């Protein structure tokens, strides 16, 4: 196992009816920016629960954070915080709203030229406005990690960033919030969290026995609950296990001591930036083809995944590894998620070359756990998704 330092300071309050606990977590004298998305929280009762918990605290609302949160919109909230002298952010939403809160928290006191540099140039941040979250969509793990992904419409860019200063102080995880989620978003949550585990697991073997078992147990749970939670989000047993799996998939725990490969996400972000395809669906498109292309370096872990998650006991190591990729793709199909770029757009010709060029221009010469996936490989992987 590799050496590691692990600290995750986010307090999780989990369970039905727990949104009321916000009143114990947010200082009574906090001047709050309450951030939310397109308005689902006003229809499903979450907004009312949050308002009741916050009582008479000073609060300014900022709604309208779009899916794949946009820099231009978030900068309006940055201005609002400065104008109203607010000192706390409460994000009520899914990954997009929570990521938006992280960017706002980082941008308010940013001393550099323009806050976009935090994303485009990876500029470090030195302070952040404290924030907490009420999660409404299990998927990204953003509620218990310190990363965020922000888009810029004008340049069709989508970049990630992170800082130890950007862990939420507290996140409320009430599994009943998923009652109002459309099936499409439930399926996205299963596929996104599944891929988070795969990206931290499908590399090469190390002697991190416990990490492998952690990862496999999250994958097994998602396979067990995935279809059922989409079918009936009101089943609390399914909803609670689904929600906790999503959080555990990307809160740092399973990444400690092991190599990771965020290549599927890196390529997937380009498909969202270019075509607006839902984040999770880009992973379903790229993942199977990425694992086929990197088969030689990943086949030992792929075969282990085949045996332990898909119960494939027969065949050579290569056979098992190939079956694991097929099983993964079939799993996405069983959730109603398509896995070809051409399922999402007719305008896919040239996509591979465009993304190859973008990777080269950014100097992303080698991605993957061995830094061996070149822009040319990326082009081949994308062509294979057509
Ligand atoms: O905007 P509203 O009206 O709230 O509707 C949202 C949105 O349309 C709706 N929704 C959320 N909760 C709901 C609900 N509808 C009904 N009932 C509820 N309880 O769902 C739609 C999608 O929401 P969004 O927040 O965009 O989805 P998700 O949580 O999948 O977040 C995706 C974003 O997170 C980033 C992605 O790249 C993407 O930008 N990611 C963030 C990560 C992180 N910070 O660690 C890691 C991930 O890999 C991912 O990249
Ligand atoms: Zn993801």
Automatic annotation (TrEMBL):
GO terms for cellular component: cytosol. Keywords: Oxidoreductase. GO terms for molecular function: alcohol dehydrogenase (NADP+) activity; butanol dehydrogenase (NAD+) activity; metal ion binding; methylglyoxal reductase (NADPH) (acetol producing) activity. Residues 187-386 form the Fe-containing alcohol dehydrogenase-like C-terminal domain. Signal peptide: none annotated. It holds the Pfam family Fe-ADH. Residues 9-175 form the Alcohol dehydrogenase iron-type/glycerol dehydrogenase GldA domain. Belongs to the iron-containing alcohol dehydrogenase family. This is NADP-dependent alcohol dehydrogenase. It comes from Balneicella halophila. The lineage of its organism: Bacteria, Pseudomonadati, Bacteroidota, Bacteroidia, Bacteroidales.
